[in-house]
Amino acid sequence: QVQLVESGGGLVQPGGSLRLSCAASGITFRIYDMGWYRQAPGKQRELVARIFSDSSTNYADSVKDRFTISRDNAKSTLWLQMNSLKPEDTAVYYCNAQNMRLGFNYWGQGTQVTVSS
Q1: Integer-rounded Cα radius of gyration of the chain
Q2: Which residues pair with 69 in a beta bridge?
Q3: Hey, is 30 helix, strand or coil?
Q4: Are 90 and 114 in contact (CB under 8 A)?
Q5: How far is it, in rounded angstroms, from Cα 101 to Cα 99?
Q6: For residue 97, which of 2, 19, 1, 11 has the smallest C-alpha distance?
Q7: Could you give the C-alpha distances from 110 to 56, 60, 96, in angstroms and in order?
Q8: Tens place of pLDDT for every residue, the chain, 117 residues?
Q9: Which residues are CB-neighbours of 32 under 8 A, at least 6 positions away?
């Protein structure tokens, strides 16, 4: 059974930092492209950052230079370090695991991030 379990969300003031974690089980983590997506109320889910199986990365323009995605294949864990948080970063953040060649795409249950004073 595949599980992606996010943690680390919460309430933070503007300018603050949070670190999200995603613990994966039931998949061969190292062969999956991993990503963080977010969905704000009334908006579509959007890509935040991805880290591919070769460890290359890409980021949404809105988070470049503020967020950093990383992975540890030995621990089957994905992280998102979020700095200089803004109120517009408020959303539910979801972990995603994708292997297009195998045709698999998995989602976590999400973790709430609220940026407010």
Answers
A1: 14
A2: 80
A3: helix
A4: yes
A5: 6
A6: 2
A7: 24, 19, 10
A8: 999 999 999 999 999 999 999 999 999 999 999 999 999 999 999 999 999 999 999 999 999 999 999 999 999 999 999 999 999 999 999 999 999 999 999 999 999 999 999
A9: 24, 53, 97, 98, 99, 104
